[in-house]
Amino acid sequence: MTSEPRWSKSSYSNGDACCVEVALGTDAVGTRDSKHRSRGPELWVSPDTWRAFVHATVANGFTR
What we know:
By secondary structure, this protein is of the alpha+beta class. The protein has one helix at residues 47-59; strands spanning 7-9, 20-24, 29-33, 42-45.
Protein backbone atom coordinates (compact mmCIF):
# COMPACT_ATOMS: atom_id res chain seq x y z
CA MET A 1 0.00 0.00 0.00
CA THR A 2 1.26 3.43 -0.80
CA SER A 3 -0.67 5.31 1.90
CA GLU A 4 -1.07 4.62 5.60
CA PRO A 5 -3.49 1.67 6.01
CA ARG A 6 -6.83 2.21 7.75
CA TRP A 7 -7.26 -0.65 10.19
CA SER A 8 -10.70 -1.92 11.27
CA LYS A 9 -11.41 -4.25 14.17
CA SER A 10 -13.65 -7.25 13.64
CA SER A 11 -17.32 -6.74 14.40
CA TYR A 12 -17.09 -9.94 16.47
CA SER A 13 -14.67 -8.30 18.91
CA ASN A 14 -15.72 -8.60 22.53
CA GLY A 15 -13.93 -5.47 23.69
CA ASP A 16 -10.95 -7.11 25.40
CA ALA A 17 -8.54 -6.33 22.52
CA CYS A 18 -8.22 -10.02 21.60
CA CYS A 19 -9.17 -9.64 18.02
CA VAL A 20 -7.99 -9.37 14.45
CA GLU A 21 -7.80 -6.11 12.56
CA VAL A 22 -8.02 -5.82 8.79
CA ALA A 23 -6.88 -3.08 6.41
CA LEU A 24 -8.50 -3.18 2.98
CA GLY A 25 -6.58 -1.65 0.11
CA THR A 26 -6.83 -1.77 -3.66
CA ASP A 27 -3.57 -3.72 -4.02
CA ALA A 28 -3.45 -5.67 -0.76
CA VAL A 29 -5.37 -6.67 2.36
CA GLY A 30 -3.58 -6.65 5.69
CA THR A 31 -4.31 -8.46 8.93
CA ARG A 32 -2.78 -8.06 12.38
CA ASP A 33 -3.42 -8.95 16.01
CA SER A 34 -5.09 -6.02 17.78
CA LYS A 35 -3.07 -6.74 20.95
CA HIS A 36 0.19 -5.94 19.13
CA ARG A 37 -0.77 -3.06 16.85
CA SER A 38 2.49 -1.15 16.78
CA ARG A 39 5.02 -3.92 17.30
CA GLY A 40 3.47 -7.11 15.98
CA PRO A 41 3.66 -8.71 12.57
CA GLU A 42 1.27 -7.93 9.76
CA LEU A 43 0.20 -10.36 7.05
CA TRP A 44 -0.53 -8.83 3.64
CA VAL A 45 -2.18 -10.76 0.80
CA SER A 46 -3.74 -9.93 -2.56
CA PRO A 47 -7.44 -9.02 -2.66
CA ASP A 48 -8.13 -12.26 -4.59
CA THR A 49 -6.42 -14.32 -1.88
CA TRP A 50 -8.40 -12.49 0.82
CA ARG A 51 -11.70 -13.14 -0.99
CA ALA A 52 -10.84 -16.84 -1.32
CA PHE A 53 -9.96 -17.02 2.40
CA VAL A 54 -13.23 -15.34 3.46
CA HIS A 55 -15.27 -17.52 1.10
CA ALA A 56 -13.65 -20.73 2.37
CA THR A 57 -14.08 -19.63 5.99
CA VAL A 58 -17.80 -18.91 5.59
CA ALA A 59 -18.43 -21.98 3.38
CA ASN A 60 -16.92 -24.24 6.05
CA GLY A 61 -18.86 -22.70 8.92
CA PHE A 62 -15.98 -20.84 10.59
CA THR A 63 -17.86 -17.61 11.23
CA ARG A 64 -16.74 -17.08 14.82
